[in-house]
Inverse folding.
């Protein structure tokens, strides 16, 4: 490495440090110097290009105690945004996220996409993205899919077979004129609980459901994907050897007993909001459907907990909405089946992000990359 290359890497490392500090909270140059260990002169040198490019903004001077007034730096409210998009079995969703982690716009559109062609699905996604981005500069887009992803292509998606083998990232990117990154929806929902804030610690499993069930496994503050991207396929953990046939070709998979479509069918309801109202009214059929799903889900989660020994399990998506009615059945199975046993060992939580964890994580994939690779912001 030449001296010039070395100095460039040092500068990018310092810039990354400053950006991460600002993700945590705004601050004056003096405050940032104290938090990062950099000198005020270095901070001024690093932040000037960011101010000039509309990435950061300097607020009016404020007086806090003795000394000279400070001018806090923060991410510009009209600065670049990232887009997150989700294609799921029963809905499309999009969200825009600022570099400071603030959600700017979001949409969720119910739709049965099981037999819709990939081209039509991407056309719908592109239209939604255009609705929420407006005139602001866009850093890129993250796209979430309930399936196994490799190199921008879905290689397995039992519930969305029309999308398998299609270069979704490249095709959506051409429609939007953006760089698009594709990942599994469960992994991105888990990422939303890591970035830009740790909402469940550094070791946890995030479980979410639509028709299928996915689990994002987080170990040591990083999403664990496995060698081929199959890690966390909780929906296809077998809990009954000769059970109900599954779309994956196996039998007795968790999703055939605890997927949202199964819960709705058993409860005699068509939509999640209708099911929630039935539960609030103590409808016996709805209560029984959720309890049975909770028992099956608890068996699957206990298997994951025994494998990964994580201290926290987060229920997200529709499970977060149903959490109060699912919790006891899930907890009972975990307590009897997890080797360490007991609530003291494994916490069970409802996600504070609910139905939008996936798209928030998809957008967060882009903002996290921009902060860790600041050359992208100044390109």
């Amino acid at each position: 490495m030449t001296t010039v290359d070395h100095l460039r890497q040092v500068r990018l490392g310092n810039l990354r440090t400053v950006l991460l500090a600002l993700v945590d909270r705004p601050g004056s140059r003096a405050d940032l110097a104290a938090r990062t260990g950099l000198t005020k002169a270095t901070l001024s040198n690093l932040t000037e290009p960011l101010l000039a490019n509309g990435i950061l903004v300097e607020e009016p001077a404020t007086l806090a105690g003795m000394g000279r007034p400070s001018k806090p730096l923060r991410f510009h409210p009209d600065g670049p945004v990232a887009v997150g998009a989700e294609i799921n079995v029963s809905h499309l969703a999009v969200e825009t996220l600022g570099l400071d982690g603030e959600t700017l716009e979001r949409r969720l559109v119910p739709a049965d996409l099981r037999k819709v062609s990939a081209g039509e699905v991407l056309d719908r996604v592109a239209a939604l993205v255009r609705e929420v981005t407006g005139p602001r500069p866009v850093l890129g887009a993250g796209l979430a899919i309930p399936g196994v992803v490799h190199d921008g292509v879905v290689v397995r998606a039992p519930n969305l077979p029309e999308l398998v083998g299609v270069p979704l990232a490249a095709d959506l990117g051409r429609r939007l004129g953006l760089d698009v990154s594709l990942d599994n929806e469960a992994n991105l929902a888990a990422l939303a609980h890591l970035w830009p804030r740790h909402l469940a610690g550094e070791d946890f499993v995030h479980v979410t459901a639509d028709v299928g069930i996915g689990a994002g496994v987080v170990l040591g503050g990083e999403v664990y994907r496995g060698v081929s991207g199959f890690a966390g396929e909780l929906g296809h953990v077998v809990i009954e050897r000769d059970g109900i046939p599954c779309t994956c070709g196996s039998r007795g998979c968790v999703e055939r007993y605890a997927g949202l479509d199964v819960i709705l069918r058993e409860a005699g309801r068509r939509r999640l909001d209708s099911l929630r109202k039935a539960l609030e009214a103590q409808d016996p059929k709805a209560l029984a459907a959720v309890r049975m799903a909770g028992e099956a889900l608890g068996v699957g989660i206990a298997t994951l907990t025994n494998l990964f020994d994580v201290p926290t399990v987060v229920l997200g998506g529709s499970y977060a909405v149903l959490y109060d009615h699912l919790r006891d059945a899930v907890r009972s199975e975990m307590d009897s089946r997890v080797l360490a046993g007991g609530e003291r060992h494994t916490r069970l939580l409802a996600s504070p992000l609910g139905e939008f964890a996936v798209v928030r994580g998809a957008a967060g994939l882009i903002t996290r990359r921009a902060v860790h690779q600041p050359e992208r912001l100044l390109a």
Residues 284-308 form the longest helix (25 residues). The longest strand covers residues 91-98.
